[in-house]
Design a protein that fits this description.
Layout: H1 12-22, H2 27-37, H3 44-53, H4 58-68
Length: 78
Amino acid sequence: MTYGYKLDQENIRELIKYLAAMQGITMLKLKDRVNEKYKKNDSIRNLGNKLRNKTFRVSELLEIADILGYDIYLQKKS
């Protein structure tokens, strides 16, 4: 079964945390996997700040989605 999630500025933090939790991945483990796969050295505090302040770059969101096993699509509003 395929699920879709509507991402908006107000729910980005909760959605990422929810999707990670559904897979049994803590935010620390998520950040570790992003760092390892994409050769980064970002801290969990940095991730927390970006989630809280909603200051992600699109590339960072794509990396997180990749680690969680999701693709991101843009869909024209109906």
